[in-house]
Amino acid sequence: MLTDAPEDSPATPGFEELGITGPVLKAIKDLGYETPSPIQAATIPTLLSGRDVVGQAQTGTGKTAAFALPVLERLDVSQKIPQALVLAPTRELALQVCEAFESYASKMKGVHVLPVYGGQGYGVQLSALRRGVHVIVGTPGRIMDHLAKGTLDLSELKYLVLDEADEMLKMGFAEDVEQILAQTPSEKQVALFSATMPPQIRRLAQKYLSDPEEISIKSKTATGTNITQRYLVVSYAQKVDALTRILEVENFDGMIVFVRTKNETETLAEKLRARGYSATAINGDVAQVQRERSVNQLKDGKLDILVATDVAARGLDVERISHVINFDIPTDTESYVHRIGRTGRAGRTGDAISFITPRERYLLKHIEKATRQQPTQMQLPTTDDVNTTRLARFDDAITAALGDTARVEKFRDVISHYVRNHDVPEADVAAALAIVSQGDTPLLLDPAEDRLAKAVEADNRPPREGGARGTRDTREPREPRTERRGRGDYTAYRIEVGRRHRVEPRQIVGALANEGGLGRDDFGVINIRPDFSTVELPANLSPTVLEKLRDTRISGRLIEIKPDRGPGARRSDTREGGYERRDRDERPPRGDREDKPFRKPRHKS
Ligand code: AMP
């Protein structure tokens, strides 16, 4: 039964109640956001009312939407002079914020968001500026360059956001930021976000913001000591494979896997089912009756894994839940405490495992503070761990089948007949039958082929020190660069998203890289057509990777990837817009993910 436990569920207003309407509301619903995060709930109404804001918030809290939604809500699309400027410390963050703006604006017509950062040629930026943009997201240095050259008109600017202000100052941008603040219209609205509030930031806020509302999200503290908390540092692209390994070796009974969005509940549940697990999605869109049915199935052991959003799992009380997995870390510690409290019910012990991407490491301190426990770091189970478990399960399956004496008796005659007629040792016949039962899936993983371990190891390398401009980009583990491919090594694929769906090359690279575990050098020419696009990928792409790519959605649409049979399919030189390869901490792994493991069926349904 789903009940709203009072300790867990203060009535949170929805996005509508915060003042978000029309196409912006539609876009966030489509993205699968169910409820505003605390920073959003506090910031959105204030910004919509026109007041300046100083927000203490970090990456992962949902702060981007907290400032982007109010900007988009009030944007005048007919005016193609920059109305909003977001300053971000690094190129990575600028691109990330840009992408967020684009996704929140996906249901608005003709909104142009431009990233402006150092290292990129001026040409692209200048022609985009000439065509007209509404929102600019840039690093302070390059914005200053444009202002000095007179190529950026900020005379109509209405909204200015300083994102990760403390980082910008640490990176030596203080002067640039102040100059930009001084050179923009005085009546603009300013929002400043910073993870920390050192005196320099306070001074900046006092000087350039007018009567700002200060918003910081305080987290409640409380959690049971019967819950063991562990975490694994793993980047986004490896999460599904890492989860599969954990599921193989971890002795679990019932499990809830938490993700951030409704859409992700569906896609992850589907992936887990494809790997042989009994998993189902629950989210705010799933009808109450269906949710209760899934929860009852979990209770009865007919279902092992629920993939859920916070809203769907509110107050859920099932004794059988031995494990909670935070596939995505929640946007606030309160949700974390609530989530892990779904296990360890009725005096039992429970296990909570959180996936933390390298950029999210800092959250551990917050979790520790909120739960008054230090989560321990876990290692990715090795191929040996997995193989030992698989062999044990294999043995168990034989033992269980031998227990069915009546059927064993019948087959014994058949086997004896075979042994007599073919003169083959019984052990060989048993091995042959094991091949039949196993199908094409190898029983054991090959440690020499353990790409997942290498990728996770890279995620766990200690961050490098650095303080100069741009070092943020190098703090994350990098994928070793490989030689560029020759043109003949690519095959063109067609995907069913095009200009009409407002897709950009960057999104295509990001989505395919994440889903298929592709590296940056795996992409050739991308050609965006009105109704579809073509993308060149390695000619020797394995069927497993293609299978994974088939499930990919871009701008909410299933891409239905297939080899391009259109005219000029092999070569497409009319590259559109020249895609940027995006460096991201959540960098995809090279090579395939693991095969579906051998697994004793856990239940009948
Ligand atoms: P940010 O702190 O802005 O970097 O956001 C962290 C992540 O949370 C991003 O992947 C967002 O897409 C996601 N996110 C932001 N707001 C919400 C929300 N209200 N519900 C679910 N996910 C969200």
UniProtKB/TrEMBL annotation:
Single GO MF annotation: helicase activity
Compartments, record wording: Cytoplasm
Q: Where is this region: Disordered?
A: 454-490, 558-605
The UniProt entry, under PROSITE patterns, shows: DEAD_ATP_HELICASE, HELICASE_ATP_BIND_1, HELICASE_CTER, Q_MOTIF
Instruction: Read off the InterPro entries from this record.
Output: CsdA_RRM, DbpA/CsdA_RNA-bd_dom, DEAD/DEAH_box_helicase_dom, DEAD/DEAH_RhlB, DEAD_box_RNA_helicases, DeaD_dimer, DEAD_helicase_DeaD, Helicase_ATP-bd
So what EC number does this one have? 3.6.4.13
- What keywords tag this UniProt record? ATP-binding, Cytoplasm, Helicase, Hydrolase, Nucleotide-binding, RNA-binding, Stress response
Domain Helicase C-terminal, first and last residues per copy: 239-386
Pfam families this protein is in?
DbpA (PF03880), DEAD (PF00270), DeaD_dimer (PF25399), Helicase_C (PF00271)
Which protein are we looking at?
ATP-dependent RNA helicase DeaD
